[in-house]
Amino acid sequence: MPIPSSLVTLLVGMALVLSGLWVGYNVNLLPLDASANAPVYDSLFRVLFSIGTILFVGIVGLVLFSLWRFRRRAGDHTDGLAIEGNLLLEIVWTAIPAIVVLFVGIYSYDIYERMGGMSSLNDHAAMHRMPPPETIEASVMVADASTVSGGGTESSPRVWGGIGTAAGEANVLPVEVTAMQFAFIFHYPEGDITSGELHVPNGRPVELRMKANDVIHAFWVPQFRLKQDVIPGQPTVLTFTPTKAGSYPIICAELCGPYHGGMRSTVVVHEPDAYEAWFQKNSPLTATVASAPGNPTA
Amino acid sequence: MTVASPNDFQESLQPQGWLRYFSFSLDHKVIGLQYLVTGFIFYFIGGALAGVIRAELASPISDFVGRETYNEVLTLHGTVMIFLWIVPVVNGAFGNYLIPFYVGARDMAFPRLNAVAFWMIPPAGILLIGSYFITGAAQSGWTAYPPLSITTPALGQVVWIVSVLLLGGSSIFGGINFIATVLKLRRPGLKLMQLPMYCWAMLGTSILVVLSTPVLAGTLLLLSFDIVAHTGFFNPAMGGNVVVYQHLFWFYSHPAVYIMVLPAFGLVSEILPIHSRKPLFGYTTMVYSILAIVVLGLVVWAHHMFTSGTPPWMRLFFTIATSFIAVPTGIKFFNWLATLWGGKLALNSAMLFSCAFIVNFVFGGITGVALAQVPFDIHVHDTYFVVGHFHYIVYGGTVFVIFASIYHWYPKFTGRMLNEDLGRLHFLLTFLGFNLCFAPQHWLGLNGMPRRVAEYDPSFTTLNQISSVGALLMAISSLPFLYNVLVSAFRGEEAGDNPWNALTPEWLTSSPPPVENWIGEAPLVEHPYGYGVEEDTLSLEAATGRDLWGGAGRR
Amino acid sequence: MTSLATNTSTSNAEAASAQAHGDHADLRLFGLATFLVADGMTFAGFFAAYLTFRAVNPLPEGSTYELELLLPSINTMLLLVSSYTFHRSGRNLLLGRMGPCRAWLLLTAALGAAFLAGQMVEYFSLPFGLTDNLFASTFYALTGFHGLHVTLGVICILLVWFQTRNGGRVTSAAPFGLEAAELYWHFVDGIWVVLYGILYLL
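Output (structure tokens, whole complex):
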């Protein structure tokens, strides 16, 4: 008994969607998720991966099927059907992708908002929240004076881009990041620590205030799913909350010169008490060990 | 009044035979082939540069070439492949060869301007390649972002700017010519909506060229002032703004993607119906989708800058605009699928490359829609994911179409057929090598390998080596191709005038065509895709699913 | 097998005459207009850059976006009048009155030259140099690029003036040279008006 083709189409389509979903949710292409926004990112990734798999397998399947089913048999010199178009079909395959991309766009906007991307930078109040308290202000000045040419020095530290802190977030650990050819220097205004590695406590939001001395660099931690260009003359900010202790690479992702590939560092996520110990050990206020790797001007 | 045609320019003054390909010829077919061969020379140079990159990346440490050299090589690779290979070939070569046929003209609207545009390319290419040997090439990537491009050795960067300005000028002249030819030079009686799709693609492309390339030219002028005259437009140390450069640069360089891809869409639209023996499905929507891509293509540039200092509202706008480009692009792909459906597909090299183009481009398009999403992009921007993505677009998309077009139009160029067995071997090697080379790069990018690096985390070694093997396969794949095109020119099977039984006008004359394209009057082709068995015409609404699945032609 | 003949017709008689020798209508003005669109985009890029700089990049202490208005305003008037004089020249050419045509042409060139002279005077009287600050650089780049266009325009006008001599290539029957120069000149004037608006008035 012949099976109706509509039924075949339906079954093939359902199998396609199910296998796409299965691939999207079971094939893991991503590294460890070590920040609060990484799982959020990963859920977006899974959705995109599923949709992409369904589309790709479907279209490739159609191409292969056509190539096999409609191949020209030897000796056949006839033409195919003179079908020049079909309005209904055109409407369908305009509308469906439009709905899909609209859905994806809105969904990714939502994800972006949850990552803090829309929160602070455009918000006037948040911009004014940016100038840190007195003590930190002073150390910023010191840092500014000590770095080489530093680019345009502005009276008020305007933040040009990045991912800010959600409004009202307390207990943020501020770290000043200076990128130069070919290293990142981290400065902790709270303890006046200068370090070549980034040490952060697990679970506490960290706000990186980033500036570059020479050319554009980019601060990237794959395990945090975050990246922000560090731009000379245009301070940027990047906020994240680490969620898993461990050491992860910091990678410069913007071509910055011959040693671009070697411009790497490490972010060490400590458990809070281990971080406290590190902090006490390195702060010049409590010990004299610090600042040895530090002064960028050298 | 009338204007002198190239014929009045005294044929006798123009060299004949093979010499004309080295002359300031005004014949659009000669210029087209000049573009094509020049383009292929630069393709092999750019391929050799890619070979250097893949050899360096076969090991995780920087050991194959010096670090400065590596940056020069990657800059040259990008610049050569974009400005000297893909743009000149899909626009200049096929555009010049085919457009006058398609509009029923004897030549382009401005033959002399056309020759000037071509002859700007060799000096630009020689400058660019020569700079590597003489002054040291630019080291700041094909994007030449300041302040890096200001602080790297100035001479190489300035030569790079001069070269790109020349190529941009060539591109603008070409664009003006195509617009005038398509809009103003159509044979009497030929309507716009009867033009073969490649004309529409070239019209859209040329609009993009004319609107966006000058902005790049102006930007590079400002950049050269920064380098030579020490102004501070893009130099933050002098109060300049580097992000403005990025905006201006991408205002050209995103449309540049469509400048490379739209003509490929057009070429595929010519090839598929002929080898499927079916009309191009949905002509009207194809035209409107090209126009939609042109309009949208001009307002999506900042998606290259999601991690730069762009304000959030801008990221949102560009995410949405970019995502929506998938809609007209999707329409084109579904139309091609529908063109294949129910046809009589000849599985020759041209068809195989065209279908592989669909597969590769769909893959690149899907990763493209993903990249348009700000949160997604923030992780993978400037990584090997992006490298994989855009090679799927420009190599898997456009270069595959260039090869398909060579197999399709070679009989027109030379009057002889290419060898099909060698062609299929070429296809197989290219397709395998290409996917082996670029598919793993997506994973590398997701897991932490940034682009433009000479060294990387040792845990990525295996996949990079697989990628390098793929690149080697691609290099090998050009051997049967080269042998095929060189030998077939002399010993290939005689093609006759119209080996594919095609209806588009370039086939309705001898192969190779005479100087003014037609002996006598140009044919009026009102149905360039009028294939198909009319009596079998079947309305889709009335057809049963069984008819459709069965390819109703065989009832 | 479908026949090729059904889809192609080679019997369009009216086409024959135009097609026989590959001649076609003069598209040079159309080509020039397209080129001017491209050229206008270069200016548009500069304007966009200038406006962005101005909006987001504060100038160092003591510098200002303010400029003297008198000289540039006179210059603007000169250019606007020159557009009119060029128009008069073109009208006279089409009417075959070569004498007035050439006189108006010369006047146009003189106005253009006066504009350039005025620009020079302004350059030398400005308190800032090319590399002083972002505004200075942008100012010189914009006005300089425009000045280059004016210079080119004046040279073109003089060439056209030469070609309108008795026995020259530009005649009322073959006005292309003058029409092209006129189109270009109006374009350059139009760009100046925008430039004046955003650089001096804004």
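The beta strands of chain B are 524-525.
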